[in-house]
Amino acid sequence: MISWDPLNLAMFVVVLGNVALGLVIGYQAYRGFRRHESGPMRYLSIGLILLTAVAYTLAFVSFWLVYFGYIPSDFGRPLALLYRLVQFAGLSFITYSLYRRS
């Protein structure tokens, strides 16, 4: 069982903060896309949401599912690969948005 000492609590709060800020940034990029109908902004918003909110949420949830035994610990590494792939996809969308013409 994880003890809720100050360090673990701080890590928990930081992860939740990362997810929240990622969603805010992605939403603002999406609003920019909707306002200006800019193709690159669409890909930027998708990339930011994947890179921050989705990847952090997936990592956070998968950690707790393995920790509490809802899924076997053997799935820990494949799940880590999955959220790294989501991060890579997010970075790919962001990179594409930088070089795409409207």
* Integer average pLDDT: 86
Tell me the total number of β-strands.
Answer: 0
* Biggest pleated-sheet summary: none
Strand residue content? under 5%
Rg (C-alpha, Å): 16 Å
Structural class label: mainly alpha
The domain count comes to 1
Low-confidence stretches: none
Question: Helix tally?
Answer: 3
Shape: elongated
Order of helices and strands: HHH
Residues in helices, as a percent range: over 70%
Distance between the termini: 51 Å
Question: Can you give a write-up of this model?
Answer:
The chain has 102 residues and is mainly alpha-helical. The chain has one domain (6-99). The chain is 82% helix and 0% strand. Helix 1 (6-36) packs antiparallel against helix 2 (39-67) and helix 2 packs antiparallel against helix 3. The radius of gyration is 16 Å and the shape is elongated. The model has no long low-confidence stretch (mean pLDDT 86).
List the helices and strands and how they pair.
Layout (H helix, E strand, L loop, with lengths): L5 H31 L2 H29 L8 H24 L3
Helix pairs in contact: 1-2, 2-3
Give a quick set of tags describing it.
102 residues; 3 helices
Give a nutshell description of this structure.
Helices cover 82% and strands 0% of the residues. With 102 residues, it is mostly helical. It has one domain.
